[in-house]
Amino acid sequence: MTGSPAPGAPRDPVFRFRPVAEADAVAIAGWRYPPPYDLYDLDPDDWHTLLDPAAGFVVADLLPAPTAPVAAPGGAAPGVGAGPVGFAVFGAEARVPGAERAGLYDPADRALDIGLGLRPDLTGRGLGPRYVGAVLAAGADRHDPPSFRLAVARSNGRAIRAYQRVGFVPGPTFASPVRGVAVEVEFLLMTRPRTLCTTAAVSPSGEHLRADPDPNGRPGPDGSDRQEDERAP
């Protein structure tokens, strides 16, 4: 038997990725996560980086599903409010300094590095794995990689489980400095082949696609449809 999404979570989320506007960047730089996820907080001045075209950040809006009767103001899905629900970045900007130092980014490996974040007030509502699936589909559409790679703090077990639900496999661990943290943080590098790519996302051209962690809509490895959430990249 499968479970139900968290209260208030859209059952069929549809994500649209678009370039970052200045208002988006300022808002995201002000997102604050509760401990122990506060290591993902950005500095308020980081909004300039989010706007840098060379960095390649995009933001995601959560649109109402085709079956939703009423959209929220601004066209957002009911219950999520206005403004971006997350952000993503692909390539070199998504890499973590400690993994670079440890030589874990093999130049011959064509894996696409991804970084992502979900708005703090939307975590714990069943959007995590579906949002990750949407980010993967957007990355595949933009970059056509053979595989995907990401880094996650080892202490963030909830995010690790969410990534595993969409096919990521744990790899090597490494330590990396994190701004505002006195000691280096231990991270886990995870990879996933493109062949598992989901049917989820809205492409850069604006096409609306559904976000499923599994292309066949199967439940997670624990036998349920309960979803874990990532707090931040």
TrEMBL record:
Entry GO MF terms: acyltransferase activity, transferring groups other than amino-acyl groups
Composition bias, Basic and acidic residues: 223-233
Species the sequence originates in: uncultured Thermomicrobiales bacterium
Stated name of the protein: N-acetyltransferase domain-containing protein
Record region (Disordered): 200-233
Superkingdom of this protein's organism: Bacteria
Domain N-acetyltransferase: 15-195
Higher taxonomy: Bacteria, Pseudomonadati, Thermomicrobiota, Thermomicrobia, Thermomicrobiales
A Pfam family hit: Acetyltransf_3
